[in-house]
Amino acid sequence: MGQRAVFLDRDGTVNRQVGYPNHVSRLRVYPFTAEAIRKVNDRGIPVIVVTNQSGVARGLYPESVVLETNEALQAELAEGGARIDAIYYCPHHPTAGDHPTPCDCRKPATGMAEQAAREHGLDLGRSFLVGDSPSDIEMAVRAGMRSVLVLTGYGLGEATYRREQWKNEPDCISENLNTAVDWILSRIDEENDE
Prior knowledge:
The protein is an alpha/beta fold. The chain is about 35% helix and about 15% strand. It has six helices and six strands, in the order E-H-E-H-E-H-E-H-E-H-E-H. Strands 3-2-1-4-5-6 form a six-stranded parallel β-sheet, with helices on both faces. Strand 2 (about 45-50), helix 2 and strand 3 form a beta-alpha-beta unit. The two termini are about 20 Å apart. The relative contact order is 0.19.
């Protein structure tokens, strides 16, 4: 049995949703993010980011922007005493279009989570995913993880206006990443007490 992990969506969950993040200067990390991630770090639980970045395939920005933004995110979190153990991203287009087959990594597909599980010895069935969109929740369900929808990013609009269209309900709806982490850690504590 592998280790549990906390998977996080990036844009809208860890940092502000700004549409297509086409320049590193557009990164705006939420003020509660470092504290939230630090709580998970302090428990020795890996923190893994999984993010769709189709702007690369759409030609809106080069892949180097994704890498620069991820590095800037890590640097800002380090200033707050927090760290992300790994970041996985899907640069592919959301529709097949000119692409003969859709990729297996774009959420809600589970490719990024499965790769992380292989590379870090993780048990997805004991893990959690936090995100701001139904595709995050669907990925969690497909991978056997528990899920939290946060009301930052697209989350509030999704929960308010589109809930009847969701394929899956999250295990929890939470105000933001910090409150989501509190819920996750309380679930883990309950399991450890059993």
